[in-house]
């Protein structure tokens, strides 16, 4: 471990892994909540066009990928929001066209070579330069600020867009913002995880955290912690085994998911048995012919909330539902 940290490129790679481990699950939890787990994979296909443009114009492939990914993510969100029956075909053409165009541009560039393209497709710990690390840090800071700072609003649109719109939340703007943050996250992670595997780091830590947590805030915190752990461990393991960092990180994340799933099953059964042993609360009801006078004093305090009538009961129910929905995002 000490020998590994003595190299500058490994220090940069580990710092990049930490940033990617934070940003990918921070965005991925909203995509999972909206059942758009494969959105990151589609954006990764489009990002390859940006990499190819960067090679053609001999500029930073990361910033070109950011530009192309943002445009692609906006198009994806507009197609999704319209709910067109042929929208999936349009998205498929966008994904595959982006990947084909990227490969064509890379092959035409002066920097053409399997090695240069492989590092973007599968990730490479050797290609994180000081300038690249600074770029990753800036983009990661933006993603973290948006996903954490606007957690309540983003949670609301992921749960129920119609309800969020009624409450005055700018749903369309936040949908576009979330799509842009997903695009930025793909470009942040492509040097560490690779464009073909970045979606896994956005989804698998979230799915693993959901096995053991019960609230949105707890799931987000646990997913970020898992993302950092598997990213750092994967980069370290890839250095020791001399393999690409992306596959090592993803396989480690899947192993953690399998472990958490195995732990969650007996915990769920134990909670179920505890609830069954405790049993539901029993409401005492006096049958005809019984002396209800003895029970009046005992049940008066318990039935105070019910004596308010139908209106009071509905108000209490609404207050309880509101408190519960607010608690999920905390």
UniProtKB/TrEMBL annotation:
Keywords: Membrane, Transmembrane, Transmembrane helix, Transport. One of its GO terms (cellular component) is ATP-binding cassette (ABC) transporter complex. Pfam families: ABC-3. Residues 289-306 have a biased composition (Polar residues). SUPFAM superfamilies: ABC transporter involved in vitamin B12 uptake, BtuC. It is found in: Cell membrane; Membrane. GO terms for biological process: response to zinc ion; transmembrane transport. This is Zinc transport system permease protein. Gene3D superfamilies: ABC transporter involved in vitamin B12 uptake, BtuC (1.10.3470.10). Its main location: membrane. Residues 285-330 are annotated as: Disordered. Belongs to the ABC-3 integral membrane protein family. The chain crosses the membrane at residues 12-31, 62-79, 91-110, 122-148, 169-186, 192-209, 221-241, 247-268. It is a multi-pass membrane protein. Signal peptide: none annotated. It comes from the Bacteria.
